[in-house]
Amino acid sequence: MQIGLLGKANVGKSTFFTAATQTPVASGNFPFTTIEPNIGVCYVKSDCACKHFDISHKNDLCVNGIRLIPVKLIDVAGLVPGAHQGKGLGNQFLDDARQAEILIHVVDIAGTTDIQGQPISIGTHDPLKDIEFVQDEFDQWFLDILKREWDKITREIDQKRAKLTDGIAKRFSGLGIKDYSVQQVLQKLDLISINPKEWQDSDIQNFAKELRKNTKPMIIAANKADLCENLDIIKKISDIVIPCSAETELLLRKASKAGIINYLSGDEGFTIIKKDIPMPQQKALDLVQSVFSKIPTTGIQEILNTAVFDSLNFIVVYPVEDETKLTNKDGIILPDTKLIPQDSTAKDLASLIHADIAKGFLHAIDCKTKQRISGDQKLKNGDVIKIVSTLSRG
Ligand SMILES: Nc1nc2c(ncn2[C@@H]2O[C@H](COP(=O)(O)OP(=O)(O)OP(=O)(O)O)[C@@H](O)[C@H]2O)c(=O)[nH]1
Ligand SMILES: [Mg+2]
């Protein structure tokens, strides 16, 4: 499971990354601070299964019954208009995020950067223009891949009677795109039975755009919300959009780590726990307090959760090896979590744990009901599952 952070240059992608992963990376108020991708681990939050069983257990990833589920986060270089023609750093670096199941499109909602990512005064750039051009650049990235391979796809169909779906899916497999998605889009656009030789340029363009939408859903992180007087502009955005302030989250996490405040990512405020804090720190915290009067939370945790649970509809399951004690071999209670797509089956979970376990799959046990379940049974959010297999991992 991977999330990609993308957007115009200088909008706060790396600040978001540092705030979410606690991995410090370079950020600066100028375009193209990031060149090489940053890869780290962030966490989405969900009720831990320990609540259902009313048990207490010691696990760094269970905080007061809230489970932190690790997800890979990737921060890449910024885009500018014309990236597909090589402007700025081009769009080749999008390859770095090709395996991401979902993209968080970070936007400077306060309009403090021009279309090239250069700093300007607040509110002097229209963020809606950024949303449009960044989506166009993504579509163009897909289109470039398709156009580059189009002659070969056409020839394969002519000479080897290959299938169009397979031909296209093969070219996009590096982006984690499956043949059923290609087929869905071909059907939706009524292109499935049309020989690629007869496709118009507009057909190729529409197909690339639709495939991008279908396979790389995007949610918008309206960043730098702390600088906005009001957030009316958000109503004009038709995609899923959540206001946020990566800078505020970063500051809160630092203050929490330093023992100055009590704060957990996603909280609707913080409490100061240290006495007699120096004036500069107090002032910074006053500023942060004023941000909470504009937005309910810093937005970072909400964005990550929305991406995984609402947009992708993933669920959390807990594999265990002992169905009574809910432990692994080492006796650790509820040791692990897996994020899986809705409608995944017990057998899918087995494959995710290990190919051998899936190969020798006999049945699974739902530890909440103690019932035996078959391989094709769909799992539910929060399920605690023991897989019974003739083979063990490795
Ligand atoms: N006020 C405010 N400033 C922010 C926020 N997030 C980031 N910034 C500032 O915006 C500037 C750019 O931040 P980066 O994180 O480097 O942006 P980026 O999108 O990674 O930039 P590139 O790698 O150059 O594309 C820095 O000066 C940050 O301090 C925010 O939520 N509020
Ligand atoms: Mg950056």
List descriptors.
binds guanosine-5'-triphosphate, 5-stranded mixed sheet, single chain, binds magnesium ion, alpha/beta, 394 residues, 7-stranded mixed sheet, 14 strands
Describe the fold and architecture.
The mean pLDDT is about 95. With about 400 residues, the protein is α/β, with parallel strands linked by helices. The chain has 11 helices and 14 strands. The protein starts with a strand and ends in a 5-residue tail after the last strand. It has helices at about 15-20, 50-55, 125-160, 165-170, 180-190, 200-215, 245-255, 280-290, 300-310, 345-355, 355-360, and strands at about 1-5, 40-45, 60-65, 65-75, 100-110, 220-225, 240-245, 260, 270, 315-320, 340, 360-365, 370-375, 385-390. The longest helix is centred in the middle third of the chain and has 34 residues, at about 125-160. Helix 1 (about 15-20) runs parallel beside helix 7, helix 3 (about 125-160) crosses helix 4 (about 165-170) and helix 4 (about 165-170) packs across helix 5 (about 180-190). Strands 1, 2, 3, 4, 5, 6 and 7 form a 7-stranded mixed sheet that branches. It has a 5-stranded mixed sheet with strand order 11-10-14-12-13. About 35% of the residues lie in helices and about 20% in strands. Guanosine-5'-triphosphate binds near residues 9, 31, 33, 77 and 223. Magnesium ion binds next to helix 1.
